[in-house]
Amino acid sequence: MRAFVLRSVSESAEVELAEVPKPEPGPEQLLVKNQYAALNWADTQIRRGLYGNLPNLPVVMGAEFAGVVERTGPGVTEFCAGDRVAAIGQHYCGGFAEYATVPQERAIRLPEAVSTTQGAAFPVTALTAYHLLFSAFSLRPEHSILIHAIGGALGSALIQLAKDVGTRVLGTTYSPHKIPLAKEAGADLVIDRSQADFVQEATAATNGSGVDLIIDSLGGDTLWRSFDALASFGTLINLGEAEGWPQGEVRKLRDVLHSRSAAFRCYDLEAAEPGSARWRKGVDYILERLADGRLKVTIAKEFAFQDCVDMFHALESRQFLGKLLLKIP
Ligand SMILES: NC(=O)c1ccc[n+]([C@@H]2O[C@H](COP(=O)([O-])OP(=O)(O)OC[C@H]3O[C@@H](n4cnc5c(N)ncnc54)[C@H](OP(=O)(O)O)[C@@H]3O)[C@@H](O)[C@H]2O)c1
Question: How far apart are alpha carbons 279 and 268 in whole angstroms?
Fold first, then answer.
């Protein structure tokens, strides 16, 4: 069969059209006769050798594809020959070929209403958009969101899902010609990073408070700067490095968290803004439970006023379980 193969990685490396053996479906795999495959930014990073998890070479490129199941391997229970499917290839590879094998759990049966072209184009970006907004965050209408590279494929999926929730959507692009497209898709404000400072613009657009969620696929210095545009209790999710790997400690932190989509967040009680609606919600929640006994604060020891110094030492001694109280005359 014909396939586009990558044999080496570098800025100048290119995929080559080659004749390669038609793959055989192994246990729990499908053999798909591909009809469409879509390109992702990750493919370009693999080609250039910049991807975090490079596949073994040579490799048939193409992370996502759609077509018809031609044959199933032993143990396939979910699909049969003739099913129209979309898929994300194992190791993000295999799609730029006439046939691909894929583990059944990475295949998605396409309903009649979803065309094969849409099927090939949605898996990576649309599912990523979904998980960013609803698994890594719990997007609600009252949130504001800032999407870097908003004019790209992922940006478009994010805009549509976020607007469907009713969220205010801001974004940035370094390519001004992408602004109309992002606005057409529903973005409320698109900042041209080639002309304006996105931190200032995003802060001004949110009356100084910053945005609740930032989706950063750029990395580099933009990742660092993005923290300055976050609101109190805001969340920044980094999922890419189109502008280059972030440097220093932030790179180490990113590498620890990345494969688990885990988060590191900071906390300061003052960020709950005493007197604000968020603050009062917390106060009401706690008072209700203190009043009906669902919450009790353990008092470990009461100290006489003059024993204030002892109270300090008591806490430092690690001997007490609960709060230490000073009785004030
Ligand atoms: N971690 C994951 O699982 C995961 C999954 C899906 C996507 N992603 C990441 O999400 C991002 C978007 O993916 P996509 O496939 O939808 O791509 P895309 O957004 O359609 O294209 C990449 C964007 O990166 C920006 N960019 C920055 N530096 C660039 C450069 N030197 N050359 C070209 N473009 C540059 C461009 O936006 P401007 O023109 O506006 O600057 C471009 O639109 C990528 O960084 C990708 O790696 C990660």
Answer: 13
